[in-house]
Amino acid sequence: MSRSFARISASGAAALQIWRLRADLESVRDLLGLSAHQPCPLNRPRLVRIATGEGGELLDEALLCAKSAMEFEVCLHGGLGVARAWRAHLQACGWQEDSIAVEGHADFLQARSPLQARMAWRAQAAKANARDSNQLRPWSDWARAARGEARLVIAGATNAGKSSLMNAWLRQERVTVSPHPGTTRDAVEAGVLVGEGASAFELQLVDTAGFWAAASGSDARAVEQSQLAIRGAWMVLWLVDRSQPLSSEFLAALEHAQPQDLLLLSRADCPASGSLAGLAESFPGRELGAWDLRVQADLAAHACVQAILQHLGPPPPIDLVLPLSAEAWQELDAERPARG
Known about the structure:
This protein is of the alpha/beta class. The chain has 12 helices and 12 strands. The protein has a 6-stranded mixed sheet, covered by helices on one side. It has a 6-stranded mixed sheet with strand order 8-9-7-10-11-12, with helices on both faces.
């Protein structure tokens, strides 16, 4: 008898996680450590205690629900440690992970933000296939945000404060902060919720390597990756150290700035370099002023969030059905100007 499992809720930490089990009832009993004498009704959910290992250590308390005689759902607490331990327990017991797409409310269950969950639920409830491009086009950016494609790339010269700003945004030290060029070699990406209530969405923050002429070897490749990330971004936050002259490499990258991009100056406590003259006036996007990121990083991150929300405008009406698949928006996305 085949025994398979799949996580059908969104990956990452959450309040709850939902797993699908496909097997007969006896296999599920063995997995959960239930004796043949313990009731396992198929007509209503029941609370079970999941023990693992030879010592029978408690992994979690879970809600077991039978969808049919051969399909079950298990609701666990949403910590990353619980997910790792549960997957390891399943694999140790000979269960195979199932990569088959989940039917029904899969988009809703796998939503990573309130906005994505709301849009997926509305689309499922409406079962609408007809799409009016003219009506949907104004909500293109909101749809991208709902799909989890809102990527904000933090770009700038080395030591401009990119990692400090990202750490403040995430409220934890995810990125190493150092005065030495090249500390951030690979693009570091992390999600953070932006907005409020049912319109909150996951913004992907991308911290990149800086631009500097002396980069070589792995550092030079990191700079190239930064340039690729900028060209593929939904929005770029250009971070400039106002105390230092602008390098030719950074100025060349800045030529690709778009109207939706943001410009933020760091080192507000230092005298401004003469090379910044006219920068704000020539920047095509929104200029957010100068900040001392050593003591104002939280305030600077808040200013960025407000600028992003103002760019998006009012959230979609609660009754609007927006398609979430990338295929459904292919025509609209093709009309968006490509980043040069």
